Amino acid sequence: MRGKIPVSLSLVLGSGILLAALAYAQAPPSWKQGQPANLADSTLAPIPQPPAPKAPAEIPVDKIKVPPGFKVSLWASNLNNARVMTWGEKGTLFVSSRTAGNVYAVLDRGGQREVKTIAKGLNLPNGLAFKDGTLYVAEIHRITRMVGIEDKLDAPPAMEVVYDTLPKDVPHGWKYLAFGPDGKLYFNIGAPCNICIPPDTHANISRVNPDGTGLEYVAHGVRNS
User: Fold this and answer.
1) Which of 1, 78, 100, 125 has the fewest C-beta atoms under 10 angstroms from its C-beta?
2) pTM of the entire predicted model
3) Under 8 Å CB-to-CB from 143, ≥6 apart: which residues?
């Protein structure tokens, strides 16, 4: 009858869905896929990141061992998931994050550091680069910039899009960003998996002009720089 599925077909479809669900449930986690057979019983596993940021008193700086003549001290705190640092031209330290989705600016106020959040809600904003008064930020799917940011930390300017047609794959999708001697912005596009043959759009080092033109693939076969 129209609108109804025969019982036999329903059983087949139901069985297929059940088998797929079981296969998914039994599949090893992504970090374990490709592990040699002799490590099948290994207890090695990723350790989840602890809640962050910790209060200064909870950071065990005194337990860090360094060679004679060196010392370790806490310079700044209250930066959630700090990842990459770059200096501005006026002494501002810019700090990116990944899972927090923020970009911070750290100012030295006579020996005391003040932390300002200058961008929120970004897509794994890992890579940072600074040139000619402009901060460049690399998210998974795009590169943006904040022009004249050091003079506007209390009212950050809008993030201008430099390039926004990058792959959106999360695995190895976070990016690093740097200016080359040719004045171009260099960044990585990681492989979208642990074990696969990635397309040419992935597993490479790319570059683009600071205005977003002239995208080029510089090197291939770079799984996750």
Assistant:
1) 1
2) 0.79
3) 136, 137, 161, 162, 163, 164, 166, 175, 177, 185, 187, 208, 212
